[in-house]
Amino acid sequence: YNFQGYHTSINTFIHYLNETGLLHEKLHLVNSTSGLKASGLFDLERLNSLLNIFCDTKTSSRDGCIGLLMLIFAQRASDIATLKKEQIKIVGDEVKIRLTKANLTMPDEYAAVFKRWLSERRKIESNNKSQWLFPGRQYSRPLSEATITTSIKKFGVSGRQLRSMAVFMLYVNGIEHPNA
Known about the structure:
Blueprint: H1 7-20, H2 44-55, H3 61-73, H4 77-81, E1 88-91, E2 94-99, E3 102-105, H5 108-124, H6 145-153, H7 159-173
Antiparallel strand pairs: 1-2, 2-3
Helix pairs in contact: 2-3, 3-5, 3-7
């Protein structure tokens, strides 16, 4: 992609996301040129590679779900940590996720990862009940932000990078409004 001329339209898109409350936290457009590759801000090969890694059965289903939430729905580690298991439902073949004011459907190609995680989580939960989608070491507490961040860094990317990729891809590909 050539990013010349995107500033105004991306800023408008960010304003829309902030006004509709589709994300937990307001976004801000920050100009930065440090660390940019000549090929552009986002490497689509890297994006596709990450999506494949998160969906791979060799990847922990918990880590895959966390990565997909960051990369597809632009969720921060702190927002993921506080997700409750009641916010995710399997309805037929679909996986529905309630984030802030929005009820979203996980794209079919990624739903299997969430189904796998929920199945594993039920097996773990036999004696210990937890309200959290991603329980921590102490089952009554959520997974910590630090643990979430560490689980993503092992894929060679930070949560901030995933969130930036997600917002840009939402802009490029369009966004399906949950109330449509």
